Amino acid sequence: MNSGLVREFEKLLGPSSVLYRPEDLLLYEYDGSIEKGRPNLVVFPDSAEDVSRIVKLAALHNLPVVGRGAGTGLSGGALARTGGVMLVFARMNRILELDVENQRAVVQPGVVNYELTCAAEPHDLYFAPDPSSWKSCTIGGNVAENAGGPHTLACGVTTNHVTALELVLPDSEIVRVGSKQGDAPDYDLTGLFVGSEGTLALVTEITVKLSRKPEAVKTLLAIFDSVDDAADTVVDITARAITPAACEMLDGWTLRTVEDYIHAGFPMDSAAVLLIEVEGLSETVAAQAAAITEVCSTHHAREVRVARDDAERDLLWKGRKNAFGALGRLAPSNYVLDGVIPRSKLPQALRRIQQIGDRYGFQIGNIFHAGDGNLHPIVLYDPRDTAQFERALKASAEIIRYCVEIGGALTGEHGVGMEKSELMPLLFSDADFDLMRRVHDAFNPDSSLNPGKIFPLSKGCGEIRIRKQSGSPPVTSPSGNHK
Amino acid sequence: MNVSSTNIAVRLESVIGSSRVAIDPAACSNYAIYEIIPSAVVKPASSEEVAEIVRLAALEKLAVIPCGARTKLRIGTPPSRYDIALDMTALNQIVHYDPGDLTLSAGAGTPIAKLNATLFEHHQFLPLLVPWYSLSTIGGTIASGIDSPLRQFYGTARDFLIGAEFIEGTGKHCKSGGRVVKNVTGYDLHKLLVSSLGTLAVITHLNFRTFPAPIAGSRGFVASFPDAEGTLALRRAIAQSPLTPLTLDIVNPGLAQIFATQTPAMPETAVFADEKRNTTPSSLSPIGDWFHPHQWQLCAAFAGTPEVLDRYTRDLTGLAAESRATSATMLDDTSRPSLWGRLRESLCMLLEASPTTTIFKLSVLPTQFAALFANLQQIADRAGFPHALVARAGGTLYFALLPNSTNDETIARLTQSTAQIFDAGCAFNGDATLLFAPPSFNKPLNNWRDFPLKRASVPAVGTSAPSKLQRHPSASSQLFSLKPSFSNRLKSAFDPQNIFAPGRVL
Lengths: 483, 506
Known about the structure:
The structure holds two protein chains of two kinds.
Chain A: H1 3-13, E1 18-19, H2 22-25, E2 41-43, H3 48-60, E3 65-68, E4 85-88, E5 95-99, E6 104-107, H4 113-120, E7 125-126, H5 139-145, H6 152-155, E8 162-168, E9 174-178, H7 189-193, E10 202-209, E11 211-212, E12 216-224, H8 227-239, E13 246-251, H9 252-262, E14 272-280, H10 282-298, E15 303-306, H11 310-321, H12 323-327, E16 333-336, H13 346-360, E17 364-368, E18 377-381, H14 386-405, H15 430-443
Chain B: H1 3-16, E1 21-22, H2 25-29, E2 40-42, H3 47-60, E3 64-67, E4 84-87, E5 94-98, E6 103-107, H4 112-121, E7 124-125, H5 138-144, H6 151-154, H7 157-160, E8 161-167, E9 173-177, H8 189-193, E10 202-209, E11 211-212, E12 218-225, H9 228-239, E13 247-251, H10 253-261, E14 296-303, H11 306-322, E15 327-331, H12 336-344, H13 346-353, E16 358-363, H14 369-383, E17 387-392, E18 396-401, H15 408-427, E19 431-436, E20 454-455, H16 473-476, H17 484-494
Helix pairs in contact in B: 1-3, 14-15
């Protein structure tokens, strides 16, 4: 990195807000995915004005700018694919306003998801989207990726809970879209920016809805001797017009791994469990829990346990939310997929995933949001074994292709990022890309914000890009790192 | 019709056949928007035909305005150009419906009522309880951005529209989203179509998440109050309770009197469940004597098992008493539709109530309701106009001025009130939109464009931020700075030649 440039950024933000030494940059070259991309410079803005100034200075030097929250993303969305300036929102972590009466909060992008819920809790309110990484991921990142989570089945994902944004555009202008109450009389720009993966603008302030905590919650653990039975149960719950607050599935192999590590009380000898939560009025919850128990029994559940208290409930959820960590004990690396399928196709999809795993020689674990058809197959592999790694990617691509074939999508909540950009042609035509590109260019005409994301770099269809295995230095052109 | 437009008609006919192109003035005047009449009406039967028509229009720079049942074409500014009315009602097929997945895809011209009839067979529905319900198409509903009382529980269309197919401004077929309920693959372009008034693209198909119909049982609840304060106290109490009603609306005496005296010629189709009454007659039943038309009303609907219904009945009755309601009535499935049908059809009842009905949509935070209600009432009283108001409890309200004359003096007073209502929206940190204006409104004055029809305000500031939280200077006083160029850029991305509904939004 050119030292003159470093000095310019230090002059702008102060020396404690700029990182440039290789050993520091190393920490910012990865996220929760298997991708890598090292920035030339990492900066920590304090305000929207800082962000605007950074964008201006970066543009002066032709450096791309990439926003980043906590770096927990699972698609390489917050990686500097083509180098440049990484803008980390860690210091913009203030809850600016908690409007209890109107159930709104105004937050900076670096506020951790769980912290907002904690701040709202004394008022019996909470922030509904709850990704598994909620104790570390930031709301800015949630907005960029339109994050989901187990409890979005009934409550909706991030976009359903955001009413206004303050943004810094690539030309350094600070603008606001939406309104605090929602329903602003303009094009739904808030709806466009949420989930745009940092490719249109940098979000510097977010107004979100807060939800009222339900009066009653019941958490059920349904234990099955066959994956098919568990999958059929999910289909049937949906078909019977019951919408649980959450409906998660863990297959037997995964839950044994989790149980070894977390001791959540999952039965070691079962083929699959469903973790189902219902919430609302106590009368509603009682009726829904009874109906769900009946559906589970119809599909041969061995047992349906109801969490007796908050401690037991928390333990079950700890097992679910920390599952990926538990799997980390089995192999040096794992690859978490994020396909979505129509819910009625769940049983056949799980069988197909098993077949694909067998064919490529992988044990593929499944722990996922069954209620909305959002699969998270996990492929365990050793990245040092190149042949195995390539097989892992091939198996993964096959699973995702199958999801699309049966009417699904590439990603339910993790985003396209750089991980799935080459798979996009499975779903979108040239005309679709052309329009998306024009919308992109309307805000980010020079691709100076988060380049190399969402859009496929090549015309080739359906290959997961194989990244370089070593920590490669940042490349300078968007097409440089593509094979 | 000039020579070149006759030419265009011939070319349109070569695309989709002469039986689906009309150029005679009588046919075209049925598609007028504020007395602006198109040169041709075209009724495509497939998205391929739509694409061809758009390509032709792009080539000849003809202005195209898509429409469905034409019930809400008056929303938006009058078009600056209007050559072709694109009647989308032939795209009226449900192309995909999997009840087990609770997802549905249908042509833009599909009537909501038809769609819900299919969904009800599977005890599901689409929570779009919109005005002109029995006529409205899903395309028109999405493009107009009209909401429904059910938004209280289900949200607005943006919350359950999961994908769309459409023709962009160069005649290419595009899509966004998909048919799964959770999806972050690509930009959510379909969300932009909501409220776009046909200015971005011609919608050909829409994909929705469907919902289980509240079949276990449902009830309505109406509490009456001598003043607005009572309804607001009850609204607040319900918002802070664990209750989650399906609808929650406040109706002022002006609207209550219209409800009590008018019987809209709207079929009593299902209100929000597959009620047994949905096969019955062509107009709503008169409202019962349990309704107090000279008072403010809070109307809530709720659904569930008998135990849940009992709980709502108990809690709502108690909360109404605490808020000093003068009466509180529970309505069953036979009496409820007469009121909820009217709530659904509020806007069309208002339009029929006066020759110069002017309807505004305002969005504010619920804590601003009391002051805004008072302000709006003052504006109407000062101008001497009867007025009516319905407020959805989440913060969106419809306010109508109902002058009983059409003369120039009335129009002048309307103009004055309009400016004041826009100011009120701003003063309460909200947004105000002129939704429906009388046809004569722009003509004698010729200053329609003097009004910013959509006026954004300063960003809202909370009223109850705990002091321990740091406040950020930019969160409070900075002016809303959404430049028109921002929307313009988006419009150009979709419609580079500005052929779609020019002038209606921008």
